[in-house]
Amino acid sequence: MSLMSSKKIIVWFRQDLRLTDNPALSLAVDNGTIIPVFILDDDAPENAALGGASQWWLHHSLLSLSKSLNTKLLIRRGEPLAILIEIAEAFSADSVIWNRLYEPWQRERDENIKTVLKNRGIAAKSLNGSLLWEPMSVLKKDETPYKVFTPYYRKGCLTRQAPRFPIARPKEIQIADGVNFSMDALTSLQLIPKTEWYKDIEAQWQPGEEGAANRLQRFISEAATSYQDARNMPAVKGTSLLSPHLHFGEVSPNQAWYAIQGAFENAFDNKDLDVYLSELGWREFSYYLLFHWPEIQHKNFNAKFDFFQWRSSPDDLKAWQFGNTGVPMIDAGMRELYQTGYMHNRVRMVVGSFLVKNLLIDWREGERWFWDTLLDADMASNSAGWQWVAGSGADAAPFFRIFNPILQGEKFDKEGEYVKKYCPELKRLPKQFIHKPWEAPPEILKACGVELGKNYPNPIVDLKLSRKRALDALAQLKVIS
Ligand SMILES: Cc1cc2nc3c(=O)[nH]c(=O)nc-3n(C[C@H](O)[C@H](O)[C@H](O)COP(=O)(O)OP(=O)(O)OC[C@H]3O[C@@H](n4cnc5c(N)ncnc54)[C@H](O)[C@@H]3O)c2cc1C
To answer: Would the ipTM clear 0.90, i.e. be above it?
Structure first.
């Protein structure tokens, strides 16, 4: 049975919670009456089960999608194959269409669903709705995948056919009778936690397609042309803040890609814009790595690191998680994450380096914490980010490059505004001590109301000694492997 002859088509929404530039939705709308459905997959493996912050986001994103569909969206929970078959039977649908996902377990599941549906006479079709270039289409001349970002992006991607231009939002969507949104069904997914830790998050983010469009517009009018430098300053809103919207597919990378090129002439010749577009390229590269090396979420890309002697220290891990390490730049970052569900990219690199190198704690502990607390938690970007920080990844920062959180703070948070925002107990310290309060004379600490070890911790590690310990561990690794 061909999709084109179908009259009733199930559109299976997943990480593409938008109407504009949604290839699956547009194809379905052009060919018949649709039955839109979102299914919370109970069979997701443990390492892919949604973290708390992502669950909150998903709840609100589904509400927003349902509103855009005139409250005609089915919400289900359970095993997708069985649910799709049940819906196909209930609505006499003869095809199912979706946008592809690239996480290994989802690829496997979707392949199986396609086969079973086809065997039952239900047409199934998948399209690319979330990447500029799909991983299988970008290979080196010898047909093997790239491992280094710059040749992957500049030679592999930019010389290929330009990414799809965004598809307009469908003018009219015919939705089958009987499709209705049920608040009870959404509530039964239990995505909203019982304790209201998300109040600060709620004030700062607007999940859904409209929130994504606003963020993109703000970035273009206020920050795009100063991106190259401003993106490194955690106290400045110098980046697009699109990551959770991109993760849930409330905006496609194609929309961002062409919005930039539409708003400014010769974007690739402008350093700020070129760097921004290349960051979208890093997102593509992360998916590319996950596609070609599906184990990167839990296995060192560079197998040499399998021999690394990590420390186990639940106390240090907890101090890091909750921003109580006594190192202001680290604590500000970890508190930003915990309070807002977001952390600035530069600070992600600095706190990651501190965990893995100064504390010698396995990068997978950091990956898990980020997975649970980030609104933009994304298997591809998170795994690639952590392996990059740890030095165990493809095209990664070498292990011996250990970020010094004092110097990073003095360079990128010169006035200490970022630290003062998230560590208010330090806010009266003069800027020469804000990133290293332990060096402040006792009378200054006293005058500023800082009591180290009482209202702000003493550092849990000596930065110089722990740096040496990390380099020794690396040297040891070289001997073993
Ligand atoms: C240890 C670590 C973990 C990370 N975990 C995640 C994660 O779970 N989810 C996630 O989306 N990003 C992750 N990143 C990448 C990056 O920090 C965020 O994408 C970025 O901070 C999001 O802010 P923004 O949207 O304002 O980015 P912008 O600077 O405005 O960039 C635009 C978009 O490009 C993409 N992007 C930018 N930098 C990167 C990068 N280094 N790698 C991949 N994509 C990038 C994002 O989709 C982002 O929204 C991680 C980075 C590190 C170092």
So the answer is: yes
Determine which residue's CA is closest to atom 24 belonging to ligand 1: 241
Catalytic (active site) residue 98: no
Give catalytic status of residue 180 as yes or no: no
Give the start-end residues of each E strand in 65-202.
74-78, 95-99, 123-127
| Count of beta carbons in the 10 Å neighbourhood of residue 346 | 21
Ligand 1 binding pocket includes 240 (Cβ within 6 Å): yes
Ligand 1 atom closest to Cα of residue 352:
1
C-alpha 46/C-alpha 284 separation (Å) is 24
CATH architecture of 131-166+209-292: Alpha Horseshoe (1.25)
**Annotated binding residue at 227?**
yes
In tens, the pLDDT along 372-408 reads 999 999 999 999 999 999 999 998 888 888 999 999 9
Contact 240, 256 (CB under 8 A): yes
363 catalytically annotated: yes
- Tell me if 343 sits within 8 A of 337, measured CB to CB: yes
CA 421 / ligand 1 centre spacing (Å): 22
Q: Give CA–CA dist 446/45, Å, rounded.
A: 51
Q: How many CB atoms lie within 10 A of CB 316?
A: 18
Q: Where are the domains of the chain?
A: 3-129, 131-166+209-292, 303-480
Q: Give the E-state strand segments of 198-343 in sequence order.
A: none
Residue 373 CA to ligand 1 center (angstroms) comes to 14
Q: Yes or no: is domain 303-480 CATH 1.10.579.10?
A: yes
Active site residue 455: no
Residue nearest to atom 43 of ligand 1 (CA): 283
Q: What is the pLDDT of residues 243-290, one digit of tens each?
A: 999 999 999 999 999 999 999 999 999 999 999 999 999 999 999 999
CATH no. of 3-129: 3.40.50.620
Q: 348 C-alpha to center of ligand 1: Å?
A: 9
